[in-house]
From TrEMBL:
UniProt protein name: DUF3276 family protein
Keyword Coiled coil (UniProt): no
Assigned keywords, A-Z: DNA-binding
GO MF annotation terms: purine-rich negative regulatory element binding; RNA polymerase II transcription regulatory region sequence-specific DNA binding
Alphabetical list of InterPro entries matching this protein: PUR-bd_fam (IPR006628)
Keyword Heme attributed: no
Species name: Bacteroides fragilis
Stretches assigned to coiled coil: none
Family membership: Belongs to the PUR DNA-binding protein family.
Domain of life: Bacteria
Length: 219
């Protein structure tokens, strides 16, 4: 009947044979189906778990409330969506990033992260992950590792610079011509690197590097 009415009829099964054939989880298949459907009717299951999260916030969902559903006499009930607690949105080079703290029907809160990327004339491609509240600190630790690996933590860099300037007042500041001349004269007079660090308020490496840049062969 669905085919006669030019609608799409999809029958899925969640067993090991299906997983071995298409190498996709039920969650992945549901995501694909939901992204293309104009209207979704969900039956023969109890709301909860991943399917509960996948349909959260969607307005085109109808749930078959009666488990003894008969095709000739359907009993339909509109399913309430999970409620939004806090929603954040930020623009990226490729599209948008949404972070939603949501609450499911049982009162449990979770984080929903959606990345929406431009696909030229084809519209958008969306990827979504869900993180339970008790997993969020572990997730943050892994993010911090990636940020640390790429050196993308401006707060830590600022703290490092502040610490250096507490120890050496001129740390990372540009050298002026008068300072260069004074440095050369003092070094020629026999001042040690350690003495020069105190005079110029710069660390050992900065003094050595500047002298070498000025053409001095260190003794």
């Amino acid at each position: 009947m669905a085919l006669k009415e030019k609608r799409l009829l999809i029958v899925t099964a969640c067993n090991s044979q299906v997983h071995r054939i298409n190498h996709q989880s039920a969650y992945d298949r549901n995501e694909i189906i939901l992204s293309f459907a104009d209207h979704v009717i969900i039956g023969y299951c109890k709301p909860g778990g991943n399917i509960d999260r996948q349909i959260s916030g969607k307005t085109n969902i109808t749930f078959l409330h009666n488990s003894n559903y008969l095709p000739t006499e359907p009993t339909l009930m509109e399913r309430a969506a999970d409620s939004d607690v806090i929603t954040y949105r930020t623009s990226t080079k490729g599209g948008e990033l949404f972070l939603d703290i949501k609450q499911d029907l049982s009162g449990q809160e979770y984080l929903k992260i959606t990345q929406s990327k431009h696909q030229g004339n084809k519209g958008f491609h969306r990827e979504t992950i869900f993180i339970n509240k008790d997993e969020i600190l572990q997730f943050k630790q892994e993010l911090d590792r990636a940020i640390e690996y790429w050196g993308l933590n401006p707060i830590k860099q600022k703290q490092t610079l502040s610490f250096k300037r507490e120890e050496y007042g001129n740390a990372y500041l540009p050298w002026e011509k008068s300072a260069d001349d004074y440095l050369l004269r003092l070094y020629a007079e026999g001042k040690t690197i350690n003495e020069l660090t105190e005079i110029f308020e710069r660390n050992d490496g900065a003094i050595r590097s500047r002298l070498q840049k000025l053409g001095i062969k260190l003794r």
